[in-house]
Amino acid sequence: MKYFRLAGSRVVKTGIAIFITAWICILLEWPPVFAVITAIVTIEPTVSDSIKKGIIRFPASAIGSAYAVLFISLFGNSPLTYTLAAVFTIATCFRLKLHAGLLVATLTSVAMVEVIHTNVLMSFFIRLGTTTTGLVVSTVVNMFMLPPEYTKEITKRLETIAFRSGIAVERVFQDILDDQHQIIVVEQELTERLDKMIRQTEQLIRFQEEESKYHPLVGSEQTQFRQDQKQLVQLRLINYHIENLVYTLFDTAEWPPEERTDIMNAVTALAQSLKRPDAYDRNKHREQFNRLTEIFWDDTEVITTAKKQHPAALPPELKVLYELLSIYNLVEKYFERGWDKNIESKNNPN
Length: 350
What we know:
This protein is mostly helical. It has 15 helices and no strands. Helix 2 (9-27) packs antiparallel against helix 7.
């Protein structure tokens, strides 16, 4: 098991698919190289992708084989044969939108030129047989041996994203409250890394959704996966509001010392909740939220002054507080569990 974890399940499955494919081809006295190439490229992150791309790669490989047979019949084993077989295969696959099968079809086409010596028609049908063997074996291996499972990795990534979001919240608001919001290079890099991690996790969620068509999640696994989906949405929105502050240039925000202290305390509590989920307390969270709301609506003097000086401008204090309140609201949703209970009640009506 330790070896499997180090090598990766996809590498292990690829090796097994290659062995079985080559073994079957040798038994049938077919050249295994073409089947092995197909098996290698057909192992995808999900069974669904393997099947979808396999359906495209089969006709693409047939096209490449047909061109190889045609041009070797006309020009024999010559440089012109390699060139025409490759060029016509690429052009046809592009025209028919068989992009997923283009590489394997082209490799097959040029490789066949070397091995076809007699009976070109029989070589063509053998090539179709090897393609089918590679596709079927790799798909079956992908489906039944170490089936893809991404739920644990998704949950782990969410914890990392939440932790780094807490760091970002603390740094950005600390800079703003210390009147250093012009120094944002580090914060920009941090939000960009967060955005990249979120996109990668969204990809894993897509993989898991596709995989669930063949290996459905049940019970607590299904509930956890739905919760992970919901939490990722909240984390993306949190990062969006952080970016709003990082990439927005505004005048220095001014608050009375007491309000500035309350805001910083609220920021610190918020950051701790994201970095350490066990630190989240719903009641305290709402108290902080209510205090921030009071500050937001009580700054009437600041708003009035700002309107007189810049009628079309929104005061920086309101911008900062609006983004902070939005993040507070999203964090509460992030830790919300009622959504999960609704799912459980549907799955277990009794």
